[in-house]
Write a structure and sequence with these properties.
CATH class of the largest domain: Alpha Beta
CATH topology of the largest domain: Rossmann fold
Helix content: 25-40%
Oligomer: single chain
CATH superfamily of the largest domain: Glycogen Phosphorylase B
Shape: globular
Bound molecules: adenosine-5'-diphosphate, alpha-D-glucopyranose
Number of strands: 20
């Protein structure tokens, strides 16, 4: 028998093992924070081929757990690692997860994503069946694990094992539905009853995210502003109707930052450490970054603008590309770290060629470069069209790199825009190139006044978005659903 968790987290990424974005970061710290508050948690996630297990020993826990999907007799193996005292269970089935990428290649999504993530959900629940008791809460994240919520909703009617389990479903990004052909619904194991407008059917396709929204006992998303935005047609991605129906069960809880990983005082990736009391190290970080990127030395006294993120429309990378000539004209330099849409990657490289020494890009992603860009830049750019929460701006605040960001979602909830009292950054309303440039101009103008700039930097660095507060709000929800703590 396995040890008995009160809350099981299900997620397709968990830092430091796997990560394509903020979901991974959240899963690497929220369960840990709860565990430090005395809650017994575990995490279940896939064993990807590219998983990073360097400092963690994986043990084979179970062989041949019955999953019976996509046909009877199909099984999974389960590995386990101890992540700072938390059991992390990895679902193994090579043909689904032992691949070069997590969800897609440059050619598009993996053709069998539907099958892969039905398998993950079913295998996770089979694993839980090995526990003495079901967890009090199953907390699933994003579309990849949303079906687990629906299985429990239907299974707990007849299976006493699940009768006391409640479910929480967190939407990290409403735009990713996990939408598949209707014919793939029929053998996923949900009853016919689920195939309707208020269930998993979405314009005659099978929609995983809807399973989470329709059947969870509590739905959360990752910032209060986004929780409001997704009720509107502008941000609701076609799901605003169902979300409105379930709005009494929806709340927005702001993510936090893991300051044990993201703090310039103790950042092992940095060439020099610094803090709000002493910013000298930040200058060293800028010099090192400049040299490593081949930026022009004579620009060292001019502002360096940094961007880190997935190169997708969500992040407004097209807006940045559009204004690069204007930025070069303003005699500032730009560094971009990211990967994603190959169209944007090519455009970016064209800009690097056109403006050598002014524009630099690292197409790809490493944790090390993310830390170095955050520390070495003066201003951080986040022109997102929508942003459920956004973690990079929280990190940029902590690194004394005030952000220029769109006034949407979690950006609104975490940045106090200049010239407001207590400003920590700059914001603009519409995700348009001219508005973005205007926001940057405002920042460049303030940058000239070293005293005011430093005040903004220091306030930004002192802002506290640690997980303790948000984890307490989750805890309240879990208690309402039956957790005794
Ligand atoms: P999102 O989750 O929408 O990408 P967040 O700001 O919440 O945005 O989180 C971004 C996190 O992912 C940060 O830790 C950032 O450094 C990291 N990141 C950005 N781009 C990539 C990438 N291409 N691959 C992996 N991680 C990335
Ligand atoms: C998603 C969102 C991002 C959020 C992250 C973690 O990827 O795009 O805004 O911070 O999830 O919740």
């Amino acid at each position: 028998m396995l040890q008995q968790p009160e809350i099981c987290f299900l997620a397709s990424e968990v830092y430091p093992f796997s990560k394509t974005g903020g979901l991974g970061d959240v899963m690497g710290i929220l369960p840990l924070t709860l565990s430090k508050m005395g809650v017994k948690v575990c995490i279940i996630t896939p064993l990807y081929g590219r998983i990073c297990t360097a400092s963690y020993k994986l043990r084979l826990m179970y062989e041949n757990i019955p999953v019976d999907y996509p046909w009877p007799g199909v099984k999974a193996d389960v590995y386990k690692a101890d992540y700072q005292g938390i059991p992390v269970y990895f679902i193994e089935r090579g043909e689904y997860f032992d691949r070069r990428h997590y969800y897609c290649t440059y050619k598009g999504d993996y053709f069998d994503n539907c099958e892969r993530f039905i398998f993950l959900c079913r295998a996770s629940l089979s694993l839980i069946k090995k526990f003495d008791r079901a967890p009090i809460i199953l907390h699933a994240h994003d579309w990849h694990t949303a079906l687990a919520v629906a299985y429990i909703y239907f299974w707990r009617r007849n299976d006493p094992f699940w009768s006391k389990t409640s479910t929480v479903f967190t939407i990290h990004n409403l735009a990713f539905h996990g939408r598949f052909s209707s014919r793939l619904f029929w053998d996923c194991g949900l009853p016919y009853e689920a195939w309707n407008m208020d269930g998993v059917e979405f314009y005659n396709s099978f929609n995983f995210l809807k399973a989470g929204i329709a059947y969870a006992d509590q739905i959360t998303t990752v910032s209060p502003t986004y929780a409001q935005e997704i009720l509107t047609p502008e941000f609701g991605c076609g799901l605003e109707g169902l979300l409105q129906k379930r709005r009494n069960f929806l709340s927005g809880i702001l993510n936090g930052a893991d300051y044990s990983v993201w703090s310039p005082e103790n950042d092992a990736f940095l060439d020099a450490k610094y803090s709000w009391q002493d910013l000298e190290g930040k200058k060293q970080c800028k010099i090192k970054l400049f040299r490593s990127l081949g930026l022009r030395d004579e620009m060292l006294d001019r502002p360096l603008l940094g961007f880190i993120g997935r190169l997708r429309r969500q992040k407004g990378i097209d807006l940045l590309l559009e204004i690069i000539p204007d930025l070069v004209q303003r005699n500032v330099s730009v560094v971009v770290l990211g990967q994603g849409n190959s169209f944007f990657e090519v455009k970016l490289m064209e800009m690097v060629e056109k403006y050598p020494g002014y524009v630099s890009a690292i197409v790809g992603y490493t944790e090390e470069m993310a830390h170095k860009v955050l520390a070495g830049s003066d201003i951080f750019l986040m022109p997102s069209r929508y942003e459920p929460c956004g973690l990079t701006q929280m990190y940029s605040l902590r690194y004394g790199t005030p952000p220029v960001a769109t006034a949407v979602g979690g950006l609104k909830d975490t940045i106090i825009p200049y010239p407001q009292e207590g400003a920590t950054g700059f914001m603009f309303d519409e995700p348009r190139a001219d508005a973005f440039l205007h926001g940057i101009d405002q920042a460049l103008d303030v940058f000239k006044n070293k005293t005011i700039w430093q005040q903004i930097q220091i306030r930004a660095m002192e802002a506290d978005y640690s997980w303790d507060m948000s984890a307490k709000i989750y805890l309240e929800i879990y208690k309402r659903l039956g957790l005794e703590a």
